[in-house]
Design brief:
- The complex is a heterodimer of chains A (399) and B (507).
- Chain A has one domain: ABC transporter involved in vitamin B12 uptake, BtuC, CATH 1.10.3470.
- In chain A, 69% of the residues lie in helices and 0% in strands.
- Chain A is built from 17 helices and no strands.
- In chain A, helix 6 packs parallel to helix 8.
- Chain B has two domains: 234 residues, Rossmann fold, CATH 3.40.50; 179 residues, 3-Layer(aba) Sandwich (Rossmann fold).
- Chain B has a six-stranded mixed β-sheet with strand order 6-9-10-3-11-12, with helices on both faces.
- In chain B, helix 14 runs parallel beside helix 15.
- The chains are: A mainly alpha (399), B alpha/beta (507).
- Chains A and B meet through helix 10 and helix 11 of A and helix 10, helix 11, strand 20 and helix 14 of B.
- The structure holds adenosine-5'-triphosphate and magnesium ion.
- Magnesium ion binds next to helix 1 of chain B.
Chain lengths: 399, 507
Amino acid sequence: MTDVQSPPDAPTDSPSDPNGKRGLRDRIDTTNAITLPLLAFISALVIGTIVIAFSDIDKLQDGDFGGILTTIKDAYLALPDGAFNGWRPINETIVSTTPLLLAGLAVAITFRAGLFNIGGTGQMLVGGMCSVYVGFSMNGPSIIQIPLAVGAGMLGGIIWGIIPGILKARAGVHEVISTIMLNFIAGSLVLYFLKTDLFVREGRSDPISKLVTPEGTLPKLFAFLDRPELRAHIGFLFALAAAFFFWWLIEKTKLGFEIRAEGANSNAAQYAGMKPAFLIITSFAVAGGFAGLAGASEVLGTQGRATQGFAGDIGFDAIAVALLGRSTPVGTVLAALLFGALQAGGQRMQVETGVPVDLVLILRALIILFIAAPLLMKAIWRISAKGASSGPSFGGWGS
Amino acid sequence: MELELRGITKRFPGVVANDNVNLTIRSGEVLALVGENGAGKSTLMNILYGLYHADEGDIYIDGTPVKFETSGDAIAAGIGMVHQHFMLVPVFTVAENVVLGIEPTRGLSLDRAKAAAEVERISDEYSLGLEPDALIENLPVGIQQRVEISKVLLRDAEIVVFDEPTAVLTPQEIDDFFRIVEALKASGRGIVFITHKLTEALRVADRISVLRRGQTVGEADPSEIDEVGLAELMVGRPVQLVVDKSPAEPGASTLQVNDLHVVDASGRTLVDHTTFDVRAGEIVGIAGVQGNGQTELVEAITGLREILSGTVSVDGIDLTDASPRDVHLAAVAHVPEDRQRSGLVSEFSVAENLVLTRYHSDEFSSGVTMNWSRVRENARELVEQYDVRTPSIDTSAGTLSGGNQQKVIVARELSRDLRLVIASQPTRGVDVGSIEYIHAQVVAARDEGAAVMVVSTELDEVMALADRVIVLYRGRVVADLDRDATNHNEVGLYMAGALDQNEQASA
Ligand SMILES: Nc1ncnc2c1ncn2[C@@H]1O[C@H](COP(=O)(O)OP(=O)(O)OP(=O)(O)O)[C@@H](O)[C@H]1O
Ligand SMILES: [Mg+2]
């Protein structure tokens, strides 16, 4: 056992990996941290132009290429405009970013431990239901009710997160399977509870919860501006605090060192006296806490109530956020911001240019596709060994 | 065919791995490439094989310049490489692995009969003894290597590069390997052979090329140079090839292994009611052919494997059911057999790896947080003291050369107060200069009063280091011998199972 010589990118180290998870991580890790996401974003924008062109099929049929170019330009200008230009756009970006960031952290922490948490949705749902219950069943004071409600949400998320952790650590159940199943169970539980007297709003037969009381509602961020339509709330601050906690945990603590070791080489972690089972369960508990907080922030801040689908697709978008952010604290914050901004800007774009907001979904999907295929990126952009990467070159792919 | 590397330079961040290297390889001869760890041997061969691209310099085949963008180009030009880490699919058969990538097909499916026939033809021609239908995962390392060789041969390689082929082979397998090398040479192929075992280089090579710190420092004719001279050429100073140590002064019994029994998941016996002890101030060498329970014995003692029955104690403290952390806290150092698999986290920096087993101590952490400045200070000290060749302490350990990775582990494990040192294959893949250093450290640990247990499949290493030799055969202790009262021959007979002290005693 003398050499590391099988170069990091050689297509040869994957067969030895029984479950393939390391293969993906390695491939993502071995490419430059900043260039790859950037190139992926640019590539997505380029392909996005084709989508925009086809969305304006009349001009395309008329051969009005000047008009198409104008549409593309307007659409891409509307995106940042709708995301950052003014209080309202900034407000919308913050509202979209908050749950993406929290749920993204919930995926990122498990990536660092070599695990894959697809259960963000379920953890958000359970956490949110716990929060909303405290949110509507108390009448203040805020200083007690809000911490209680938020704490209940985190606790709910932690409990839902710990389950796949225990199943994996004790019984070897693959976490991808168990988290998906737990998402279904959580979804059904939410539906069930929203129909019980405990939760359902009086006089409603559809599954919708009572309203969170004003004392239980998260304070607005821009309250000082006295503009009620600016709905961004302090959940965003929680999310930033969570990102800071994530950084501190991973970079500064013994536990973080252990989690990273377990994620990178479980055999070495065990040899070094770490306890893989404990680390798996703990990582999932932390993940559940983050996702639970995301659920809390949605029901206590943004939505003010729980409905059947209050978690939306955030748990899945979070996977994309964590991948794009390479599971680092700063990266995850930036990725969540990017996705949040795209979502906010997409609304403006649709209104102003008629390009459907689905373009944003396509852009997001393309970004992830490109991130997951670094070889493809390298081939398209002709990154050679002489560049940033120290690994072997892939010149043969493109040339 | 004559292959020529001219003025090859390759830089990695912080290091010049190859610095204007010239090398010629001819058909029908064996070229041994030797040099210290990190001298750039593997890098040079990876450039030749199209895996890395040289920053400067060119490759010529019979005088014509060639360019290898990928290893596919190198293969097409008749160059083959057998890596140290085999690149086989464990769940595929021999034949499937050999034809992987150039599968003969019938319609859309793999033509198994043809694949098997090809493998058999090559196997017969070079007496590789391969069974086309055997599954890779069931084969010993030596046979897996031959599968790699037949892959290269099937692709019509005229030049075959072996990167440290003998490091993981048993002495018997090494003999077989050299027979194959001779056959390849006789068939007119050119062979490049990287090794740290200078006797091997002297034994098979027609020419020996020496790299030092990225540069070619000389070429030697095996008939005109001996091991000592070659070692000096490599390291740049005289090297002590024999271990320099005073007679042991054994004290109280430190490690006590009593009637230890270990089985695998299917109940097969791995360690068979083994009893022995290691005393403070002595080095006990555990000899044995690979796969006779050494790995499992060490795992059981260090808390990595469940013990079925029997006991393990260190200084009277029972460690039978202890966790790896308990064992560590009992002042036991463990240099693991397989540094890639468990000794290092290759993504981690050198500094992080230097505290991998010790991060939790008060020295490197307080409360729940790490004390990174102490970790870095520790790294700077150890890198200096153990002469680890690394661009910086922040370099990820995976990019270090094999021998330097081993130094990181040895430095980490030996740099604290110890009662017991367990070192498995401590110098596998390590250059002569570093072997000298690691051996000196092991002896120093002994002289400071630690009990030392060295497990090695290399009889030479055991005989050089040990004060007492224990031979394992099929999980049992078949000999417990005073080093000075025995010799290579006798130990070899015990290792082969031809002798057994237990039987002699009862007879
Ligand atoms: N992919 C890489 N990235 C960065 N540095 C590298 C990489 N591969 C090798 N190096 C560095 O290049 C130098 C030469 O390494 P190389 O692996 O060629 O040495 P070697 O002669 O094969 O040593 P050993 O005998 O220990 O295997 C070392 O300093 C090593 O750290
Ligand atoms: Mg090497």
